[in-house]
């Protein structure tokens, strides 16, 4: 029997007490990794309520019951110090850190003209800063290991973005901005860490979880068989990206749901207009750029998302 792909590896999964994070933690454990299950444990999807280790403990027990190894961390990954403690806990306990899955997030949905400053700050803090915090300390660990080893080491980061950054989401300007920022963080970090043997990718999952209960309220699960929106459709891709087999996949954004994986192409220039003189004038811009959009139907700016079969407000 072949050894499990992640045998001897240690993985940290944030937001792993429920939904996608839970499915991802279980999959990484199934592939042989020792898993540090992180979840702040607040009951509200907006991050409200008292924090609790309960959700993380439940998942850790599932892993142990299946013969795996799991440790619980119930800290807030948006806190710089607690994120450092999470990385340190993994290294001190298992002697290594090999995989980071950034998944933790909250929602504070509101139209942009009604959004409060705190609603903006809270979502950016948990999603984007939380991703940065774990990435920062894991990256420093891998850099030091690489310097000590005199060459590349093993490291994998899987970030969680969303289709909201691709297609827009009218009532989620904070969420869409955070998820777009995560893509930027992913591609920048992928370039910075490649020399150390570390890969960094982002997924845009579509799944039925506490975070998306409103979006999929009218789309019920099938009477039989696995729900196409089940988190279990997403977890295998995360496990694969965390494995040695995915060493050549770096800096990518992948949409995943219901038995489909789509590799998102980086933006390309669709049209270019050069001024006839030294500087564009108003009239010339209107005759070129303005005419270009006047000839196209409204909403064509979302054409790339439509090709993927995506729609606003999902994931």
Instruction: Please identify, by name, the CATH architecture.
Output: 3-Layer(aba) Sandwich
CATH superfamily: NAD(P)-binding Rossmann-like Domain
Helix and strand run:
EHEHEHEHEHHEHEEHH
State the major sheet: 8 strands, mixed
What name does the CATH topology carry? Rossmann fold
Report the CATH C-level class: Alpha Beta
Number of strands: 8
Question: Into how many domains do the coordinates divide?
Answer: 1
Salient structural properties:
single chain; 315 residues; alpha/beta; Rossmann fold; 8-stranded mixed β-sheet; 9 helices; 8 strands
Structural account:
Its EC number is 1.1.1.100. Belongs to the short-chain dehydrogenases/reductases (SDR) family. The chain has an 8-stranded mixed beta sheet, sandwiched between helices. It has helices at 19-30, 54-65, 80-94, 117-149, 164-167, 173-193, 235-241, 282-294, 303-307; strands at residues 10-13, 34-38, 70-73, 99-101, 155-160, 198-205, 253-257, 260-263. With 315 residues, it is α/β, with parallel strands linked by helices. The protein has a single domain (10-263), classed as Rossmann fold. The radius of gyration is 21 Å and the shape is globular.
């Amino acid at each position: 029997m072949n050894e499990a792909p992640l045998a001897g590896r240690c993985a940290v999964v944030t937001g792993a007490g429920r939904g996608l994070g839970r499915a991802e933690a279980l999959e990484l454990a199934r592939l042989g990794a020792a898993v540090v299950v992180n979840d702040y444990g607040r009951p509200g999807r907006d991050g409200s309520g008292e924090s609790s280790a309960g959700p993380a403990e439940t998942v850790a027990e599932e892993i142990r019951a299946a013969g795996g190894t799991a440790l619980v961390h119930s800290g807030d990954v948006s806190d710089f110090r607690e994120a450092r403690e999470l990385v340190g806990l993994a290294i001190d306990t298992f002697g290594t850190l090999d995989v980071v899955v950034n998944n933790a997030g909250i929602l504070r949905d509101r139209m942009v003209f009604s959004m409060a400053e705190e609603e903006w700050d809270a979502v950016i803090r948990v999603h984007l800063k939380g991703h940065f915090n774990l990435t920062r300390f894991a990256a420093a660990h891998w850099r030091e290991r690489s310097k000590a080893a005199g060459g590349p080491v093993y490291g994998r980061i899987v970030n969680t973005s969303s289709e909201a950054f691709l297609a827009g989401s009218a009532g989620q300007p904070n969420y869409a901005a955070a998820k777009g920022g995560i893509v930027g963080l992913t591609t920048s970090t992928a370039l910075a860490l490649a020399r150390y043997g570390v890969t960094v990718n982002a997924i845009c999952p579509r799944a039925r979880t506490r975070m998306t209960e409103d979006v999929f309220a009218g789309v019920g699960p099938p009477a039989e068989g696995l729900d196409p929106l089940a988190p279990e459709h997403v977890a295998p891709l995360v496990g694969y990206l965390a494995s040695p087999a995915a060493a050549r996949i770096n800096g990518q954004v992948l949409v995943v749901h219901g038995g489909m994986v789509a590799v998102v192409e980086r933006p390309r220039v669709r049209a270019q207009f050069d001024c006839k003189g030294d500087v564009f004038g108003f009239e010339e811009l209107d005759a070129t750029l303005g005419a270009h959009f006047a000839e196209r139907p409204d909403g064509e700016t979302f054409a790339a998302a439509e090709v993927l079969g995506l729609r606003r407000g999902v994931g």
